[in-house]
Design goal:
The chain is mainly beta and 113 residues long. The protein has no helices and eleven strands.
Length: 113
């Protein structure tokens, strides 16, 4: 059984930073391809960033240059460093293991102007 646990969300002012963490419990092979999504109130879930077993990363256009995804395989953890946060970044952030198709429970990020 695989479980993903996110943490690191919170409330910040515009221009601030947060670092989200996602720990994968269970099959370590599930950490090979990891993604972050977010869902704002009244909107659908959207892709934010991904990190893959070949070392590549990708980002949504809306976060390029501000967010950085990274991974610590020894800790089975994926991080999302979020800088220069804006009110439009306010959402519930979820991590997902692509290989195993499992979602975390989410962590709330709120950015005030």
């Amino acid at each position: 059984q695989v479980q993903l646990v996110e943490s690191g969300g919170g409330s910040v002012q515009a221009g601030g930073s947060l670092r989200l963490s996602c720990v994968v419990f269970g099959y370590t092979t599930c950490t090979y391809d990891m993604t972050w999504y977010r869902q704002a109130p009244g909107k659908g879930r959207e892709f934010v960033s991904g990190i893959y077993s070949n070392g590549s990363t990708n980002y949504a256009d809306s976060v390029k240059g501000r967010f950085t995804i990274s991974q610590d395989n020894a800790k089975n953890t994926v991080y999302l460093q979020m800088n220069s946060l804006q009110p439009e970044d306010t959402a519930m952030y979820y991590c997902k293991t692509v290989r195993c198709g499992v979602w975390g429970q989410g962590t709330q990020v709120t950015v005030s102007s």
